[in-house]
Amino acid sequence: MAHPRRPVTVKLPSAAEAAARVESMRRQTEDSTNYRTKSLRIHGPICAKCGREFDQSNLHLLTVHHKDGNHHNNPADGSNWENLCAHCHEDEHSRDLLGDYLSK
Ligand SMILES: [Zn+2]
Ligand SMILES: [Zn+2]
First vs last Cα of the chain: how many Å apart? Predict the structure, then answer.
């Protein structure tokens, strides 16, 4: 004896649920892309190492360094960020490598 086929009911999310989902997705994207903007706002457009100041014309040369090396660790208070110019940033990382090399 065949079971009667149940109609498949698809529960559509309410408008509020859908909006909340979109909002949380938007926020996740923002968190990963906007930490640079936030770090610049918190620490200022200045290289933390050499003290060089940046303005709108060369701000792209100022990058955000993650102190613990974890790009996913982005606390809102900026405690894991350091604004470094491209030169100092490279220096910071080559130093890491050198440190690794020397400790082996
Ligand atoms: Zn610098
Ligand atoms: Zn870095």
Answer: 73
